[in-house]
Amino acid sequence: MQSLRVLLSVSTATRTWEDGVSAVVSPVPALRAAAGYNVGLLVIRLAAGLTLTVHGSQKLFGWFGGRGVDGTGAFFEQIGYRPGKIFAVIAGLCEFGGGLAFALGVLTPLAASAMIGVMLNAVAADWHKGFLNGFEYPLLIALVAVGVALAGPGQYALDTVTGRVTGLQLGDWRYGIAAITLAVVVAALTLLAKAG
Q1: Is 182 helix (H, G, I), strand (E, B) or coil?
Q2: CA atoms within 13 A on the CB side of 146
């Protein structure tokens, strides 16, 4: 009930602009917009993160009809990622762990970085197929991770809870820039190692 009284007491306020014009304004639309923004980020994180978690479980454990480490490693060998099993484990961990952390909103910039890095390699591997039926899926997942890295995980994330305790605000866009930079550098080094 206290929250309702506070909301009602701030539901209107008078705002005076520089030119002297005053008007009654309401913060309620801003509160509704913020709630929609945070729910939207939660839906995006859950959809992309859990989808990638399933893909990682296919590589690591053979779940959901996946090949497991051995089968994925053999496939990776065929497309030039050698040693295949090591790259299969790395890709699986980035997808499974990064996707799960992204969905939960825990260490979100680092989770986004893992997702971006592995998806950039998937884009490179599927580039020859073209956009449709080729690299559109990994590109979309990478761009979703870029967007969340820059925007932050939203209020409905474990980072928000831990940030209140530690003071570390992982939703800051500078962490997003660092995460994207890390992902691009590691993806580029992986592609260079594959080519060499």
Answers
A1: helix
A2: 15
What's at 33, amino acid-wise? A
H helical segments located in the chain: 2-9, 28-61, 68-78, 84-104, 108-126, 136-151, 158-166, 173-195
The structure's pTM equals 0.82
pLDDT confidence of 8, banded at 50, 70, 90?
very low
- pLDDT tens figures, 112-127: 999 999 999 999 999 9
Q: Which two tokens stand for residue 70?
A: 């051995």
Which residues contact residue 115 at a Cβ distance below 8 angstroms, ignoring those fewer than 6 apart? 48, 49, 52, 94, 95, 98, 99, 102, 141, 142, 145, 183
Between CA 83 and CA 73 the distance in angstroms is: 8
Burial zone of 3 (CB within 10 Å; 0-12 exposed, 13-18 middle, 19+ buried):
exposed
Classify residue 189 as exposed, middle or buried by CB count within 10 Å of its CB (0-12, 13-18, 19+). Answer: exposed
Give residue 173's pLDDT.
86
Give the mean pLDDT of 92-108.
97
Cα distance between the two ends of the chain: 66
Q: Tell me how far apart the alpha carbons of residues 98 and 114 are, in angstroms, rounded to a whole number.
A: 6
Q: How far apart are CA 150 and CA 194, in angstroms?
A: 29
Query: In a 3-state reduction of DSSP, which class is residue 169?
Result: coil
